[in-house]
Amino acid sequence: MTRIVCVAGARPNYMKIKPVLDALEARGAEVVLVHTGQHYDPAMNEVFFRDLGLRPADHFLGVGSGSHAIQTGKVMAAFEPLVAELAPDVVTVVGDVNSTVACALVTAKAGPLLAHVEAGLRSRDWGMPEEVNRVTTDRISDFLLAPSPDAVDNLRTEGYREDQIHLVGNVMIDTLLANLDRARSSGALERYGLTPGSYGLVTLHRPANVDDPAVLTDLLKALGEVAAHCPLVLPVHPRAAGRLAAIGVPGGVRTVAPAGYLDFIALQSAARIVLTDSGGVQEETTALGVPCVTLRENTERPITVSQGTNVLAGRDPVRIVSTALSLLADPPPARRPDLWDGRAGERIADVLLAAGPAHPRPTSRLSQR
Ligand code: UD1
Ligand code: UDP
């Protein structure tokens, strides 16, 4: 039997790993779920296990917060002996957080094959810690599981072998589609005291947006102006909580605790507009057909702009307000990219299990050029 370790550790990992884990187990693989503990507050962690029906992790590394080096190093130090003990055939990592790259680095030197779910996304912004994590993880992965054709193009341009690259679709959307009806009928809007189409939803957590008080002050000014046209709800990420409280949010912007998954999907699907710097939220708004203003200069998910409802507005308050007002007046048409169809996890499981146990590691990861 093929033994596969699946790694999760931070909020956006749980919804990505769940469909992969389910599809692997449905096909008879032995799956070991490892939780690094990068996120640990109940609102950033337990609620997702509950909402998604994700079984408890088999191993919890409990690393917690720290600088990049400390957090990455702690995951590596805790994961290395576990990989030696478990001796899996494959380790699967998702996304671009520190837990992803840490477990990837350990795996690449330990022997099991390494599979990266969400391979090939590139913002080309090396100021983002996630870009370092994405490129590093792809470079040492055996299976590159790409969500969209642009990601495949990036991998080909970087010289990866064709047999490593698999266009599988978007696991985030698997989980969204599997839970949408449940979210919509959960009574979340009533609990928040909201009616459909009467509010906008905001998330902010990128270091470039929330760590510098001057940048955050400008963003809040823009949100205040948008809120004059459409009241805004902002579930606060713990990274931003202190600075938001210190600066103070403008009138019309209501802050709430980080939302659970079902609540957040309910809030997104009934919003008039979403303003965000989240990667996953850009994808979910595209799948839901909800207008999205991305508060960043770039995106590693360009398909949400070319095919979806996403518009990049950067950090300039004037541009943010004018973008939001034009999307409110003239919402873009909804179009869901190919393979964002709820079956990416199944395609991933098929790829991983076709390789079989003890698949030999290739001697070269890049094609010879
Ligand atoms: C991390 C990921 C980011 C992802 C985001 C999703 C990296 C480098 N960054 O960013 O890519 O988009 O998660 O939400 O991996 N904190 C708490 N409670 C928690 C977790 C964090 O209070 O449960 C606070 C701590 O003060 C911590 C800070 O948030 O220092 C940042 O947490 P960390 O996991 O380092 O990065 P995120 O900003 O959450
Ligand atoms: N999300 C949530 N509650 C919130 C904010 C986001 O459940 O208060 C969900 C969102 O629907 C998506 C995922 O968390 O599925 C995105 O995670 P996040 O924005 O933290 O990280 P990123 O995608 O930017 O890495």
UniProtKB/TrEMBL annotation:
Its EC number is 5.1.3.23. The keyword Isomerase applies. One of its GO terms (molecular function) is isomerase activity. Coiled coil: none annotated. InterPro entries: UDP_GlcNAc_Epimerase_2_dom, WecB-like. Residues 24-352 form the UDP-N-acetylglucosamine 2-epimerase domain. It holds the Pfam family Epimerase_2. The keyword Membrane does not apply. Keywords: Isomerase. NCBIfam families: wecB. Belongs to the UDP-N-acetylglucosamine 2-epimerase family. This is UDP-2,3-diacetamido-2,3-dideoxy-D-glucuronate 2-epimerase. The gene is wbpI.
